[in-house]
Amino acid sequence: MPRLDHPITRLLALLIGVILALPWELNLLVKSAQFCASAAFMTYGLMPGVIRLAEYFGAIDIPGGRRAHRQPTPRLGGLAVLISANATLFLNFNYSLELKGVALSALFVAMISMLDDIDEVSAGAKLLFQVMACALMMAFGVHIELIPGSGWEGEALEFAITLLWMVGITNAFNFLDGVNGLAASLAAATCLLMALLALLTGQTYMLLLCLAVAGASLGFLPDNARYKKPARIFLGDVGSTYLGWMMAGIAVMGDWSSEGPIKAFSAPVLIFSVMIFDMIYTTIARIGRGDVRSVREWIDYVGRDHLHHRFMKLGYEPIYAVGAIVALCLVTGLAALALVVDSSHVMWMQLGQVVVIYVVVSAVMIDAAKKRGNGQ
């Protein structure tokens, strides 16, 4: 019997993924499983080819400096994720104008990030391209709506908040791609929570979109979430940027509540709160330590002070650090799901619950920083 990583097994997985991606007439439950499984099988089947492509272009992550891995590792794994998610969607969806905006802008930032994986692109240039991608997405009518019909001043504010959200979430997710299995696991958990949110709010289209991205992320894990052996491949900037952008765009596209914009956007904020918390905490800590003194220094700074680093400094094995962060995402995500079915006063109680959770996590991270300073 062929091993799971045998070429025949990979080819069979790719074939199954393509067959599942065909537009079958199925009920919603089976269709949901089809979307998730199709993207997962395709990602897994495509991976050997992507590894060879990374080796051909020299997209190899070399150990040293702040990198924790011990052997050269290809870093274009996100290309398989991107192809699988888009193939599943392309074969089943008549793309709406909004989805075209999110998908095209995601492909744009992913291609720039793939160039960065192959031949380094400066952080400033990547940020500029992300701003351009956000402008492209908003040209297709995708932006956060806070005060409908508020005039040009309100629209300008909405565009600014949309830009901050898209660029912020994309880079916050990218920052968490620092230990095997974390980014793909977090993306899968986030997309599955968003899928449940879409189901609760009656958005079948968004449900299937989330499941395709979740499935593509899950299909990456067998080659990356390896803790006793080296990872075969890393997600790379192409993958972390694509997944971060798609997740942020899905949050903007969706209609998450009929009770006003604050409640509507509270649920996605809670689901994404692990990424948001990590970015805010590390930024404040770096400014406090004097490590960054300008926006340019903040963009260029690379450190080992993110949430997963803190957990590992406390003695957690990488697999348990990943599990703890994904569990935190699920806890806050379940609170988000409750927002769409509970009354408004319960919303504030649940938001307070999440604040308490992150106060506790902050204390843990501060303790980890102190232990590091004492050489422990």
Structure description:
With 376 residues, the protein is an all-alpha fold. The protein has one domain (7-373). It is 72% helix and 1% strand. The protein is built from 16 helices and 2 strands. It has helices at 7-21, 28-57, 77-90, 97-118, 123-139, 151-175, 182-200, 204-218, 221-224, 236-253, 261-271, 273-289, 295-300, 307-313, 318-339, 344-373; strands at residues 60-61, 73-74. The protein has a two-stranded antiparallel ribbon with strand order 1-2. Helix 3 packs antiparallel against helix 8 (204-218), helix 4 (97-118) packs antiparallel against helix 5 and helix 15 runs antiparallel to helix 16 (344-373). The longest helix is centred in the N-terminal third of the chain and has 30 residues, at 28-57. The chain is globular, with a radius of gyration of 20 Å. The mean pLDDT is 86.
Features:
2 strands, 376 residues, single chain, mainly alpha, globular, 16 helices
Helices, by number, come to: 16
Number of domains: 1
Q: Give me the oligomer status.
A: single chain
What order do the strands of the largest sheet run in, or round the barrel if closed? 1-2
- N-to-C SSE string, H for helix and E for strand: HHEEHHHHHHHHHHHHHH
- Main beta sheet: 2 strands, antiparallel
Distance between the termini: 48 Å
Instruction: Please give the share of residues in helix.
Output: over 70%
Radius of gyration, taken over Cα atoms and rounded to an integer in Å = 20 Å
**How much strand?**
under 5%
Say how many strands there are: 2
- What overall form do the CA principal axes indicate? globular
Q: Average pLDDT, to the nearest integer?
A: 86
Structural class: mainly alpha
The unreliable regions are: none
